[in-house]
C-alpha cells in the first residue's frame, strides 16, 4: 500500500503533461484473408447459370450452346429423336411391375373385346331371323309396304353390325399384337441376370437396363431441377436409379447413326459427370457412375464418374461460362467436324424456306442430312 502511494505521488510530481496528438487514432481494419484456395469452379455473382443440357451442347459445339442458352429450355435429361426418323415403335417399359400390370390389364381388355365380338356375331343371326319372321308375317297379312320398310331397317342394322364386326376384328388383332410385344419385353426382362458393375470401374461398360433393375434398383422420375448455387449449375436427369444411398443418373440419348454403335462422345462424359456432381451435392448420396440409355432399346453404357470425366466436366463448365459471357462479343466458329452439323438438330431445315435454327442465328447454311441422302 505504502509503495503504491509513493509511486503515484512521484508520478504526479515529476511526470510531463500529456499533450493530445492531432493525428487521428489508428483505425483497425478487418483485412479479409486472400482466398488463395478459391476453386476455379465457384461461379462469380454475375456468372450465368448453366444447365447441364447447355453444358453438353456447348461441348458438342459452342453455337449449339448459345442456341440452347437463348432458347432458355430446362434440362430434361434426354435428346431429341434423330432428325428424319419417323418409324413408330412399341413403347418400352422400364419397370417390371408396370409391365406386368399393363399385360394383365390388356388381357382383361382382350376378354372384354371377345365378348363384344361374340355378341355382334350373335346379333347378325338374330337380325337374319328377325328378317325372316317379318317377311313371313308381312306375307301372311298381305302388308308388303310395312314389310319392305322393316326389311330396309333391318338391312341398315345388318350393315352396321357388319362394320362393327370388322372394327372389332381389327381392334382385337392390334391388341394381340401389342400383347405379343409386351410379352417379348417381359420375357426379356426376366431373362436378364442381376448385375451391378464395380463402383470404381474406369472404362464404360455395356449393360442391359434389366441388369440393374433386377439387382434391386428403384426407378425415380425427378420432377425438379437439381441445383448447385455455388457453381451456378442446374440439371435434371431423365431418370434416377436408387438403391440405398447410391444414385445413378440416367440420360436417354438418340441412337447413333452409321457404324458408331454405342460409342460415347465427350459431351456424354461431361453430361454424366455433371449429373453425378449434382446428385452428390443435392442428395448427399454416392454417384459412382451414370448411365446412358439408347432410346427405343434397353441397351445402356456406364459412364464412370472418375478424375478424367470430372476434369472434362470442370473444363467444359468454365468454357460454357466463357461462351455465354461472350455472346455479342465473340462470334463462335461452327463445329470443326462437319459431321457434327449433319447430325445436329439445329441444322434441320424447313422444307420450303430452307431456314434452320443455326442458319438463322448465325447467318449461314449449315450442312444438313438432306445434302447427304446416302446416310439414310
Ligand atoms: S449446325 Fe453445326 S454449327 Fe450449328 S449448332 Fe449444329 S453443330 Fe454447331
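^ C-alpha cells above, recovered residues below v
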Amino acid at each position: 500500500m505504502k509503495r503504491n502511494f509513493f509511486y503515484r505521488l512521484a508520478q504526479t510530481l515529476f511526470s510531463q503533461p500529456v499533450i493530445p496528438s492531432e493525428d487521428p487514432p489508428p483505425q483497425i481494419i478487418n483485412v479479409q484473408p486472400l482466398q488463395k484456395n478459391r476453386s476455379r469452379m465457384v461461379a462469380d455473382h454475375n456468372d450465368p447459370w448453366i444447365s447441364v443440357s447447355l453444358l453438353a451442347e456447348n461441348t458438342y459445339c459452342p453455337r449449339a450452346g448459345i442456341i440452347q442458352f437463348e432458347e432458355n429450355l430446362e434440362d430434361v435429361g434426354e435428346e431429341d429423336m434423330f432428325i428424319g426418323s419417323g418409324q413408330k415403335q412399341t413403347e418400352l417399359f422400364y419397370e417390371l411391375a408396370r409391365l406386368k400390370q399393363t399385360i394383365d390389364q390388356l388381357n382383361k381388355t382382350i376378354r372384354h373385346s371377345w365378348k363384344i365380338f361374340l355378341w355382334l356375331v350373335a346379333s347378325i343371326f338374330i337380325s337374319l331371323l328377325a328378317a325372316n319372321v317379318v317377311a313371313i308375317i308381312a306375307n301372311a297379312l298381305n302388308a308388303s309396304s310395312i314389310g319392305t320398310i322393316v326389311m330396309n331397317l333391318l338391312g341398315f342394322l345388318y350393315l352396321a353390325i357388319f362394320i362393327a364386326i370388322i372394327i372389332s376384328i381389327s381392334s382385337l388383332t392390334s391388341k394381340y399384337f401389342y400383347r405379343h410385344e409386351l410379352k417379348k419385353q417381359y420375357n426379356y426382362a426376366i431373362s436378364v441376370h442381376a448385375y451391378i458393375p464395380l463402383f470404381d470401374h474406369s472404362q464404360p461398360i455395356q449393360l442391359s437396363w434389366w441388369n440393374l433393375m433386377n439387382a434391386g434398383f428403384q426407378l425415380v422420375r425427378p420432377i425438379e431441377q437439381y441445383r448447385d448455387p455455388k457453381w451456378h449449375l442446374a440439371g435434371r436427369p431423365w431418370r434416377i436409379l436408387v438403391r440405398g444411398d447410391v444414385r445413378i443418373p440416367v440420360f436417354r440419348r438418340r441412337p447413333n447413326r452409321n457404324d458408331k454403335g454405342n460409342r460415347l462422345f465427350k459431351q456424354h462424359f461431361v453430361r454424366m459427370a455433371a449429373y453425378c456432381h449434382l446428385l452428390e451435392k443435392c442428395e448427399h448420396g454416392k454417384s459412382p457412375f451414370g448411365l446412358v440409355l439408347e432410346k427405343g432399346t434397353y441397351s445402356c453404357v456406364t459412364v464412370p464418374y472418375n478424375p478424367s470425366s470430372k476434369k472434362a466436366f470442370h473444363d467444359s463448365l468454365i468454357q460454357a461460362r466463357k461462351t455465354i459471357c461472350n455472346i455479342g462479343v465473340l462470334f463462335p466458329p461452327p463445329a470443326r467436324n462437319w459431321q457434327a452439323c449433319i447430325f445436329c438438330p439445329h441444322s434441320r431445315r424447313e422444307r420450303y424456306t430452307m431456314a434452320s435454327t443455326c442458319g438463322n442465328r448465325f447467318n449461314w447454311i449449315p450442312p444438313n442430312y438432306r445434302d447427304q441422302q446416302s446416310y439414310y
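The chain has ten helices and nine strands.
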